[in-house]
Design goal:
mainly beta; Jelly Rolls; 7-stranded antiparallel beta sheet; 8% helix; elongated
Length: 426
């Protein structure tokens, strides 16, 4: 059968429907892994609509070499930590103001947690595949910093950040190396002596910076060379085992429409926020979406679905101090709100990502568009019973950035529309 504009077959009609009710909430994800993202997130950013978000970065360390290669006539000078910006120069917030980073000594062993062996496997999100460290985890550290550094992060020109550390701390490590102390003979013993370090932001910081996850601590010394000139050297300590480096994310939504959402009270209906819904990477805020009439619609007989699009309009731009996420994805959650699957790209096995389409100065909002043809056709299968959709910042940005966006509204409701084009056989 062919269909054209002049087709006279009255038993066939092409229909567009865009009026299905969509129930939406702001929803808090739990068990968000934060290891091995490729960058340290360190800083604090505050926005009137979403509150403040703060990130500190924990990591294990190891000696670059385990031999005593310090010259016999050398003398200890100083110790400093050097960290460089991430390759993509990531930042979120106002970088024109002075930022402060402190270095603390971790006093508790940094360990992984495995929830995949839980007796309740339906509570394990699909993105947790083994032992990891979650973004809300804190390990104890010495409240007295080893070093503090304040600077204005000129992100595009910033080459490195050097933080001078406590002299006595450096002298102790230097003396142990010189004496071939047990604590520096293996990296296992060294990690018992120095369980790790954590970089924390100042409370007045205004931006979160992405820093390279390879950190260098230099135990600096000087010595007289054989040529009679003074020379300098360093015993180097580096970050180790990327699986044990993670970003601890904290949030404070006091005074915002989302103040009631936390790890216990995880859902806030859009009706309570005048239709606005907040999505935030790092902290794990997503939009929970239910389309109650979709199942019934797909039960109708004599239907052929031609096209299904989910269009999400948002506030904000993809530039400036607070850019919106570059892309969003859709997770499929079980009746407990735990993500158990992803919405795939049509006719593929990859996760579908909807890239941001900018708006304009004439009042058109930015938007993200998903192709839901496969999802819609499968909605009535047994695996989908009791499920909902979670609209989230796309992976891996969900775990390694803190960008957020607020869904735009119209007449007190979120501007989320499901467009279905179908053929109806009479």
């Amino acid at each position: 059968m062919s269909v054209s504009l002049d087709n006279s077959n009255d038993n066939l009609g092409v229909v567009v429907i865009d009026s299905m009710t969509i129930n939406t909430s702001t929803y808090q994800l739990l068990n968000l892994p934060s290891t091995g993202t490729g960058s340290f997130l360190v800083g604090k950013s505050t926005q009137a609509e979403s509150g403040s978000i703060t990130s500190s970065s924990y990591f294990r360390v190891q000696l670059q070499t385990l031999i005593n290669d310090i010259p016999a006539n050398a003398a200890f000078d100083s110790i400093n930590l050097v960290v460089r910006p991430s390759s993509n120069k990531y930042f979120y917030g106002d970088t024109t103001k002075t930022q402060t980073i402190s270095v603390h000594r971790v006093t508790e062993e940094i360990v992984l947690k495995d929830i995949t062996n839980s007796i309740e496997p339906y509570n394990t999100p699909i993105y947790v595949t083994g032992p990891t460290i979650f973004n809300d985890k804190k390990f104890t550290f010495d409240s007295t910093p080893l070093g503090v550094h304040s600077f204005v992060p000129r992100v595009n020109s910033l080459d490195s950040i050097s933080i001078k550390l406590d002299h006595a701390f450096g002298q102790e490590i230097y003396d142990m190396v010189k004496a071939n102390d047990y604590n520096v003979t293996t990296n296992e013993s060294f990690q018992q002596y120095l369980k790790g370090l954590v970089l924390t932001p100042g409370n007045q910081n205004t931006a979160i910076l992405g820093l390279n996850d390879t950190v260098q601590v230099n135990v600096n010394y000087s010595y007289m060379g054989s040529d009679g000139f003074m020379k300098k050297g360093a015993k180097v300590i580096t970050s180790s085992h990327k699986a044990f480096q993670y970003n601890n994310i904290e949030y404070d939504r006091t005074g915002t429409a989302y103040a009631s959402i936390d790890a216990v009270n995880r859902e806030l209906k859009s009706a309570a926020t005048n239709g606005e819904v907040l999505l935030q990477a790092g902290s794990g805020l997503v939009a929970k979406i239910n389309i109650p009439s979709l199942n019934d619609f797909m039960h109708e007989e004599n239907l052929a679905i031609n096209k299904v699009e989910l269009i999400v309009e948002t506030k904000g731009h993809n530039y400036g101090y607070y850019p919106v996420p570059n892309a969003l994805m859709l997770l499929i959650a079980n009746s407990n709100g735990v993500p158990i699957s992803y919405v795939r790209a049509p006719f593929a096995t990859t996760i579908q990502q909807a890239t941001f389409i900018p708006g304009n100065d004439s009042g058109t909002n930015g938007r993200y568009i998903f192709n839901l043809i496969d999802y819609t056709k499968n909605i009535n299968q047994s695996d989908y019973r009791g499920t909902s959709l979670l609209l989230s910042v796309a992976s891996p940005a969900l775990f390694g950035t803190v960008n957020n966006t607020i869904i735009a509204t119209e007449n007190g409701k979120p501007k989320i529309k499901l467009n279905i084009v179908y053929t109806k056989f009479k």
